[in-house]
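Our platform keeps sequence and structure together, in a single record for each protein. Nothing more is needed to write down the fold, since each code stands for a local backbone conformation. An entry from our holdings is shown next, in its original layout:
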Amino acid sequence: MPEHKRQLNIAMVGSGSIARAHSNAFHQVTHFFDVPFELRKKIVCGRTAAKLKAFAEQWGWEETSLDWPSAVTGSDIDIVDIATPNALHAPIAIAAAQAGKIVFCEKPLALSVAEAEQMTNAVQGRPSLVWFNYRRVPAVTLAKRIIDEGRIGQIFHYRSYYFNQSGIDPAKGKTWRYQRDQAGSGALGDLLSHSFDTARYLNGEIKELCAATHTFVPGRDVDDSVMLMARFANRSVGTLEASRFGVGCRNGSGFEIYGSKGSLVFDLEDMNRLQFFDATDPAPLQGTRNLLVTGPNHPYSANFWKPGHLVGYEHTFIATLGDFLGALAANQPFHPDFRDAVCIQQLMEAVQASADSGNWVKV
């Protein structure tokens, strides 16, 4: 007889592009991960009835609602997923947490550190998830394994970038991501928050930074680009840069890590590959290995396809959710959670303080 699986009912707030990625993960996760849950896409909330109805039909949501406060506090809901403009993250998360729900939230967590801490206090004692999904790119997870095994030795340099070209489109400036009251920031929260999470995951805490921001479009009230120097707790130094004016980059996000025994290089636009240089090889054999991270024995290769068959953007959300559900079933902690996202919010606030003052800022 088939094993009985506990049903978890989901309410999602949002019906934009990122809500599509979340919906796909909810639909696919039990196909790839062995977890003792069945996910039911119970209700999706939005602002426009016609758009919401079409979204629900396409992605298999059972019900729709224009009244998110009632939906996220419903007695039949177990998980609330927030896929809205950033300004709505806090009120939705706090209402859901006070109703005893498990809360998922898009990044960045909030508009400010104070708001992020309120959200984290509200979910305290309950599992939470923040969709910093790039941790679950198999090549990034393999980089973490290589670092933890000591194969690149003491890390000296961490270099990171996140460039796209969305800022050059005049129509984009009219959307919520380019409005400070809705987004909180520009490239800083939209792009650099991902880079900060990856940096913490791979290289540990940033203790001090010096940053600058720049806005290319007159009258725009959010940053178009941000760059910073950083000192990490492990005594390495780094640079991180993000821009919406990286013409030619659709979603170019990557890192370079240089250590005493080797180096690692990754770019999201070639997400199945990781470059690894092993300086402990005999000198005549030293050279960069261009690793195709699809198995065998690579992260998530047992969950997805056979070796040599590529994974894509959607699999990072599926793996994030699969790992969360596995941790939930085992009553173990999951990362990144709301507390991790508060650390990212603190780094973002330090960037703004440094950019405003022109000084190094301790985090």
Residues 155 and 259 are 4 Å apart (CA to CA). The two ends are 54 Å apart (CA to CA). The chain has a mean pLDDT of 97. The domain at 136-308+336-362 is CATH 3.30.360.10 (Dihydrodipicolinate Reductase; domain 2).
